[in-house]
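tool_log.txt
---
The assistant was asked to compare two proteins side by side. It first ran the structure predictor on the initial sequence, then on the second. Raw inputs and outputs are pasted verbatim so the downstream comparison step can read them without reformatting.
(1)
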Amino acid sequence: MIAPQHQRVIERLIDLFKDNPHFSAMIIGGSVAKERALPTTYDGGAYGRVSDSVVAYDLAHNTWLISSLAIKTTTTVTNSTDVIVSRSHNGLTWSKPVLVAESGLSNNFDKDWVVCDQHPGSKFFGRCYMEWDDSNNNGRIMMSYSDDGGLTWSQAVSPVNQSFAGLGGQPVVQPDGNVIVPIYGYDLTTGAEGIYSYTSIDGGMHWTDPIKIAPSTYFS
């Protein structure tokens, strides 16, 4: 028998005209139950559109998370991109966006990814990790974590030494709680492309300097 919290699969659908993320809640082996747009209103107004949505499930807190890049225009910035998370305990009703990282005049956040520690034996069981990069600052890698089902997020940190512009990192949590992040990058000096990797053994508080694993070519 499938546990109730596992009976719903969240799918990302895109409204091609408004570029707003939609979702469908599906009962496994059944038909679509609901389809609607995620809330995009926040304390400062409403996001114009969102993109790059990623779905994760937090087993420890019985919470679905959908991370996105949210684009807004204010009196001081145009097309500023924030990193946000929408939360749900049942896959049908979703929270207003939770702000993970707010971009400023000098930032351009890109390629978010979220994942949660699903291993009950891990010392960080239930911790969720968010990764994104700042393309306006040499593709700087940014990492944040949450211990309460995505309700609050830590101050973003980065590896101390990063010699490449990063793009599209995808954290992977190991059974012991260690986190490995493979990521594409190109060397800031030579322009040589490659796949890099960096890790954390303390729950995302610190990250090792990335190492190059293999050469690579980026395909958009």
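(2)
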Amino acid sequence: MRDLESALSFIFTREIVIKKILHKENLERFVGLLVQCFPARPAVNRFLKILHKWLQGIVKDKDRPLRPSALRLFYNMHKADNTSLPENVEWRTCQGSRPQYRGYPCSLWILFHTLTVNCATRGITSLTGADVLARIRGYVKSFFSCLECSKHFYNMSKNVEKEVHTHNEAILWLWRAHNKVNKRLSKEPSTDPHFPKIAYPPKDLCIECSDDRKGHNNTWNDSPSTWRDNVVLNYLKVHYSVHNIRLSESEETPEPDRVRYISGNEFVRVIGFGMTYFDTSLCVIVYGTGVVILVMLYIYILRRRRRGVKHFSHMA
């Protein structure tokens, strides 16, 4: 959750506010998407709802521009209510080997994937898969500070209304787009040498996601030629699900990358030592059964001894 909330904090306090005039319609639609599909903590969810309602009022007033100063003022007003996002941007999953690597762009991709997956798993009917991607496209076009990146993403997504309909299709479209971007940037100097951009998901995370599952190592010269979309879809739904998100600092940090292919299109989370929740439950059952058997055996031995003592005393 820290990377996701840091992404939102960066959006509202650093990226959007550098514009002179904000595209209020695209911002309102994007925040509306966050309200419906972002797996927020209750405090953050309240803030997003208040922000969305405020933006809706500004959009209705067609002659009223939205300036960064107004957004800053609104954001600062709600800090005292403990409903705002964390002030300190901190990367965990997206921490690069140096400050100039990964960080916000990485967290933005995680945010977008999380939105597509949670719109699907929540069964959102007010938005289609194309609507979700169009709102993401609107944000990238209007606010993303990397103009070249924004242009590339817009060109990729300009026909999503024709290409995508369902939420599942939106999940897969964004996954393919992300792999295309990673391939294009794989040899750029902006790529972290300690975190090379590879075809995702790699075989060590999902060996069944590709028909070439026995050979590829996911470098772009040896990436899988055929993906199994249905398996990839289920992998992504596990990886970016709300169950893989640490909602508070007191919760144990989950390992969202670690999921195991079972059969068909099913995955389960791996919680440690290569074990799933099912494995752990089975171990508890076996352990409990073993304890019961040992106790019963101990009682049986005690009774046998007592009978032996009584028999010996009668003979004496």
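---
observation on (2): Confidence is low (pLDDT under 50) at residues 250-258, 260-265, 271-275. Strands lie at 259-261, 267-272, 275-276.
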